[in-house]
Design goal:
It is a single chain. This protein is mainly α and 180 residues long. It has one domain. The protein is built from five helices and three strands, in the order ααβββααα. The chain has helices spanning 3-43, 45-66, 94-106, 111-142, 147-176, and strands spanning 72-74, 77-79, 84-86. It has a three-stranded antiparallel β-sheet, with helices on one face. β1 (72-74) and β2 (77-79) form a beta hairpin. α3 (94-106) runs antiparallel to α4 (111-142) and α3 runs parallel beside α5. The two termini are 37 Å apart. 22% of the residues are buried.
């Protein structure tokens, strides 16, 4: 066998292992970013997470009021005369936004593209979460028997699918535009 044939075989083997390394690197970065963000949010719960959650409650009250519904907010609790919800860490979308940001930052793109991806994800997930809270107040006010199912099964699933779809859209746009 000629040296050229041996080198050609090595290039083929190397080209097969390179994507595996890139995928491993991406997963490793995703895990590290996720641990870092979650640790940071856990450590800054009072300074970042609580104000973020209170702001969601206030914004929910504002939207309800603008829609003509009598509403109130106190801290992390928002409600109407017939139903109220306490927005907890699992319901404020901050950890989901952090998870989305970790996925964006782990993807091989320019820092500018990553910054736009994080910004896009933050705004989109925040808005979807606001719609989620508003709809859950509506369901709780009018169809209380369906609140738990809507909260735990319907919205959890929809939110995960939306976040994943948003990331796929963002990454796919980079690939389609040849930016990656």
């Amino acid at each position: 066998m000629a040296y050229k044939d041996v080198m050609k075989g090595r290039q083929t083997i190397a080209s097969r292992t390179w994507p595996a390394r890139e995928v491993f690197r991406g997963w490793l970065l995703f895990a590290l970013y996720t641990l870092g963000f979650f640790g940071l949010l856990y450590g800054l719960d009072r300074q970042v997470v609580d104000p973020f959650t209170r702001w969601i409650a206030q914004l929910t009250k504002l939207v309800l009021t603008l829609a003509g519904t009598q509403a109130w907010a106190s801290g992390k609790v928002v409600g109407t005369p017939t139903f109220s919800v306490a927005i907890q860490n699992n319901c404020n979308a901050i950890y989901e936004i952090a998870l989305f940001a970790a996925a964006v930052l782990a993807y091989p793109a320019t820092w500018r593209q990553r910054a736009w991806g994080v910004l896009l994800g933050f705004v989109a997930l925040y808005i979807v979460n606001l719609v989620r809270v508003l709809s859950l107040i509506y369901v709780g006010s009018h169809f209380r028997q369906y609140f738990d199912a809507s909260h735990i099964y319907v919205w959890q699933s929809l939110f995960i699918v939306f976040a994943l779809g948003l990331w796929i859209y963002w990454a796919g746009t980079l690939v389609r535009n040849g930016s990656r």
